[in-house]
């Protein structure tokens, strides 16, 4: 079993120029449309109730927040250090015509230039899987992602769907990861996949 056994707030930065120095490619960047449950998922993954602050006003947070984390394989005892990056939410209360008009331009630059990022975790609200803004983000990530980087799409809030709706979603996206923060469904799978990607073993 893979777990995140340690986690702590590292720093915040408004731009890539003020991002912390890091000589390793061990960052996991979490990105999502506002109100998708990104901060809640970070807290669930790290088993910390308030590691990432959940804003009462979606879209309010404009800083890039960094957290140190240690993954551990309970079977082998092997540990991997990583940095979890909480990016500001995008596209709150409107549908974008393009990614750059809805998301801060310095964030698009950050994503393209921050070579320390190993995994981009793109969270999508399972109740709204076909929004234009998420399609734009997915396309942008495919365009800028290098061979040694990974993209991981995760559908959130599956507890909000009934069984029929969930089955339909799984038929449409059979290989997608799906998660419920409140019920911890899918959480262990996400931690395991991130661990393997950080090690360099893509599933």
Keywords:
single chain; 203 residues; alpha/beta; Rossmann fold; 7-stranded mixed β-sheet; 29% helix; globular
Describe the protein in words.
- By secondary structure, the protein is α/β, with parallel strands linked by helices.
- It has a single domain (2-199), classed as Rossmann fold.
- 29% of the residues lie in helices and 27% in strands.
- The chain has six helices and seven strands; from the N terminus they run ββαββααβαβαβα.
- Strands 1-3-4-2-5-6-7 form a seven-stranded mixed beta sheet, sandwiched between helices.
- The chain starts with a strand and ends with a helix.
- The model is unreliable at 56-60 and 92-96 (pLDDT under 50).
Strand order of the largest sheet: 1-3-4-2-5-6-7
Secondary-structure element sequence?
EEHEEHHEHEHEH
**Major β-sheet profile:** 7 strands, mixed
Shape: globular
The poorly predicted ranges are: 56-60, 92-96
The strand count comes to 7
Put simply, the count of helices is 6
CATH architecture: 3-Layer(aba) Sandwich
Task: Give the radius of gyration.
Answer: 16 Å
- The rounded distance between the terminal residues' Cα atoms is 16 Å
Question: Average pLDDT value?
Answer: 86
Superfamily (CATH H level) name = P-loop containing nucleotide triphosphate hydrolases
